[in-house]
Amino acid sequence: MSTTNLIALKSIMHKEVHRFMRIWVQTLVPPAITISLYFVIFGSLIGSRIGDMGGFDYMSFIVPGLIMMSVITNSYSNVASSFFSAKWQRNVEEMLVAPVPNWVIVAGYVGGGMARGILVGAIVTVIALFFTDIQIHNIWVILLTVSLTSAVFALGGLINAVFAGSFDDISIIPTFVLTPLTYLGGVFYSISLLPDFWQGVSQLNPIVYMVNAFRFGFLGISDISLTVAFTVLGVFIVGLWATAMYLIRKGIGLRS
Fold first, then answer.
1. Per-residue pLDDT tens digits for 136-155
2. How many Cβ atoms from other residues are within 10 Å of residue 26's Cβ?
3. Which of 52, 93, 116, 248 has most Cβ atoms within 10 angstroms of its Cβ?
4. 205: helix, coil or strand?
5. Beta-ladder partners of 52
């Protein structure tokens, strides 16, 4: 990597991190409060009635899923809102004419989204310690899964921002696609409890693979093979990266 590209990459990432840290009350506190409510309602109140799941108490079972849910939503929303703001303010045009390759622009925004997603995930993990004892079965699986997942949804947020025509458009995918897929992604239950037909349907949901791989890192249990889960993550990263690069290179939705 040339010095110019490295400086450009660092600059974009620094801008992105500074952006969400400057308004941390809006970007970091709300997810922490929301997840705390999940812990209280689903973990403490409802969990005590459900009992064990997968050989673990219900609170321990849902912790990995709730952490992953916070990582997904924040990685996505950070890039979607930031990149659309840059497009709306015409800042993207300045980057497009700058002497840096398109991959630096994509990597910079994705890196910023990953930073916010992983930071919020860490905050949620600390909050979880007040409700249950967190076990770690394989730290490397945890780190790899959270990194790949945050990258997938940061890329998704960038693509959403490219096609968005207004600020309202960047909330359509999270509301009507991301949220349903997350709730049906095995965060609150094991898909092994479902009838065979619905287990098959659930396997069409990519978030199922992410949540289960992440849960394996903590508890050592998973409804999905780790090899399959990481393959799915890899395919999504390659596909979304290629799509983002194509859109930036062609200037779709960016050049007026």
1. 999 999 999 999 999 999 99
2. 9
3. 116
4. coil
5. 57
How far apart are alpha carbons 153 and 145 in whole angstroms? 12
Residue pair 252/162 in contact by the 8 Å Cβ criterion: yes
Q: Which residue has the tokens 């400057």?
A: 22
How confident is the model at residue 28, as a pLDDT? 92
26 Rama class: left (phi>0) / alpha (psi -120 to 50) / beta: alpha
Burial 83-92 (b: 16+ CB within 10 A, else e): bbebbeeeeb
Beta strands per DSSP E along the chain: 52-53, 56-57
pLDDT at 21: 94
Would you state the structure tokens that stand for residue 51, as one six-digit string?
């009992």
**Whole-number pLDDT of residue 133:** 85
Measured between alpha carbons, how far apart are the two ends of the chain, in Å?
31
Residue 233, both tokens: 């993550």
56 DSSP assignment: E
pLDDT of residue 135 exceeding 70: yes
pLDDT bin (cut points 50, 70, 90) of residue 195 is: confident
Residue 195, φ and ψ in degrees, nearest 5: -60, 160
DSSP-derived letter for residue 216 is: H
What is the DSSP secondary structure assignment for residue 191, as one 8-state letter?
Answer: G
The burial class, CB within 10 Å (0-12 / 13-18 / 19+), for 110 is: buried
Rounded to whole angstroms, the Cα distance separating 206 from 153 reads 11
How much is the average pLDDT of 179-192? 87
